[in-house]
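To the structural biology subgroup,

Please find below the input and predicted structure for ParB/RepB/Spo0J family partition protein, which we are adding to the shared reference set this quarter. The sequence is reproduced verbatim from the submission form. If anyone notices a discrepancy with their own records, reply to this email rather than editing the shared folder directly, so we keep one authoritative version.
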Amino acid sequence: MTISGPELTLTEGLKLIRKSLRACGTTSPIPHPKRLGRREIARMVSVFQPRMLQGRLAEDECHIEELQAAIGHGEEPRMLDPITVWWGGDIYYVVDGHHRLTAYDRQKVTTDIPVEVFEGTLDQAMAHSAALNSKNRLPMRLEDKLNYAWRLVLVSSLSKRQIVDSCGVANGTVGEMRSVKAKLLEDPATTVEDLQSLSWKDARMNSRGVAAKELTCPEAAVRKRAERYVKSILRAVKDRPFVDPEAFAMALVMLDERLPSVLMQTDAWGDAFRETVEGLRNDLESARDLAALWDNEDDY
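Predicted structure (tokenized):
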């Protein structure tokens, strides 16, 4: 049985799955199961989880708690919507439903879990995972969409149109990703595996001759303190800032009217604001591309 888990990198995960497919074949068991035991379902987060957890911990945690409440007691659970799985040669992998699987695990559910089998290649399964995550209850942010599209450009043979449709990014952006990939690979010392360790933002910077920014010691220390604050905030307010932003914003002003101004002057909030603007720009570009997408011969 394939050993898999979130600790594996994208390169390691793809190698492991492709090795299993070569050894065991790509044909999934017939008939497709409607339910699977927990030990028959594996995670490969680096390959099949397009949405990063950073920056949305409160929302993720509250969503999982809601799912746990819906499941109820682990010995007599109420089943959730089927988890989408894909046959990877020797085991089924979660393509969509990581939160549901976590909720089942936390409730210690031992009975078989409802599943829906996705048929297709590894490339198609990765694209399907992106498409489902773009539309589910906790949709991907722009950064996640761009990084996953960049991943598909690097490791798959999917067409430009397939990547655009799956990740919800602009046609021109995928074209730029292809150009950046080709430019960076002009260096004989650079491999596709090297590029897999780069985010799309860093890859684009490198293609322009700008080294990706690394955390300095002071910045690393700030991040560690921030991670401790995150735990305290999660315990105190959970997802209240997200579901009731107006009241939470007012609470910050009531706490100290200078606080919003101080926060807006920080690098962290400045970066977040710029990413929001970039997201609006990407949405506009995607809308402009939509009408012309099907007539573009370069999409194939």
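Summary notes: Residues 1-6 have pLDDT under 50 and may be disordered. DSSP finds 15 helices and five strands in the chain.

Regards,
Lab coordination
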